[in-house]
Amino acid sequence: MGRDGKTAMPPRDSRVSAVLFGRKRWVGAEFRGFWQVSGRSPAGLRQVSGRSPVGLRQVSIHRKRTEPMPDLALFQPNIPQNTGTILRLAACMGVAVHLIEPAGFPLSDSALRRTGMDYLERAALIRHLDWPAFEAWRRAEGRRLVLLTTKSADPYPHFPFQVSDILLFGRESAGVPAAVHEAADARLTIPMVAGLRSLNVAVSAAMVLGEALRQTAAFPPAPAG
Predict the structure, then answer these.
(1) Dihedrals φ, ψ of 92, to 5°?
(2) Environment class of 39 (CB within 10 Å of its CB; exposed 0-12, middle 13-18, buried 19+)
(3) HEC letters along 139-176
(4) Which stretch of DSSP H or E encloses residue 90?
(5) I want to staple 91 with a disulfide (CB 3.0 to 4.6 A). Which of 40, 119, 131, 190 is the partner?
(6) Burial of 2 (C-beta count, 10 Å sphere; 0-12/13-18/19+)
(7) Could you tell me which residues come within 8 angstroms of residue 3 by beta carbon, excluding any fewer than 6 positions away?
(8) What percent of the chain has pLDDT over 90?
C-alpha cells in the first residue's frame, strides 16, 4: 500500500517466489498477460498469480517452460525437509508445486531457506490458503486431481496420466481427510512389499511424477551436445 492509499506496483526486477490464491488481488500488466498481485503475505513472500496459456502459473523468472504438464500438490505438509526435496525435484523437472495450507512449519522466505530449500527461487511454488481455496481454483481450471494414497488398490504405473493432472500427496503424519479423498478424480497407490506401510512422501512424489512425465512426454529436453 503506497502513501497515497493506493496499492503499489511491484518493481519490475522483483524475484517472485510464491503464489497465493484466495486473497483480495488487483490486476495489472506487469508480467506476461494480466497478472494479479496481492503484495506481501504474512509470511513475507510476494504473491503473484495470473492466467497464462496453461492456466494459473507461477511467474518465477526462472520458469522457462510454458507447455501443459502435470503439477504436484502437497496437502498441509508438516516436514519441511520433505517439502524442500520436492521443491528441488519440481525445479529440476520444470513442474509447479501447489502447497495447500496450513503447513506444519513456517513458510517465510528465510525459514524455507533455513530448512535447506536452496532451490526455492527456481521452483514454481503456488500457495493456496486452504483446501476450499485450492479446490475452487482447480475446478475453475478444469484440472484433474490424482490422489496418491495407501488406501487405494490401483497401482500408479497402470494409470493413464494426462498433462492436466495434479498429483496430490497427503500430510506425512495423517494423509488427507475423507473429504479430500472424495474430491479426487482418481486414487492411486505405489505397489510395495507386503507388510511395509508407506514410502517417504518425497520418494513417492519422484516415482509418480517420473511416470506421469514419461507418459505425457513432458520431461525437460536433454541438453545439447
Answers:
(1) -70, -30
(2) middle
(3) HHHCCEEEEECCCCCCEHHHCCCCCCEEEEECECCCEC
(4) helix 80-93
(5) 119
(6) exposed
(7) none
(8) 52
For the entire predicted model, the pTM comes to 0.73
Among candidate residues 98, 96, 99, the one with its CA nearest the CA of residue 70: 96
Contact 109, 43 (CB under 8 A): yes
How many CA atoms lie less than 13 Å away from 223 in the CB half-sphere?
Answer: 2
- From CA 37, how far away is CA 17, in angstroms rounded? 13
Identify the pLDDT of residue 10. 37
d(CA 127, CA 51): 15
Of the ranges 18-27, 108-117, 198-207, which is most confident? 198-207
Contact 139, 166 (CB under 8 A): no
Determine the 3-state secondary structure of 209 from DSSP.
helix
Q: Which of 21-25, 32-36, 125-129 has the lowest mean pLDDT?
A: 32-36
**Residue 190, all three cell numbers:** 505405489
Between these two residues, 80 and 147, which has the higher pLDDT value? Answer: 147
Can you say how many angstroms the Cα of residue 201 is from the centroid of all Cα atoms in its chain? 14
Which residue has 502437497 as its cell numbers? Answer: 74
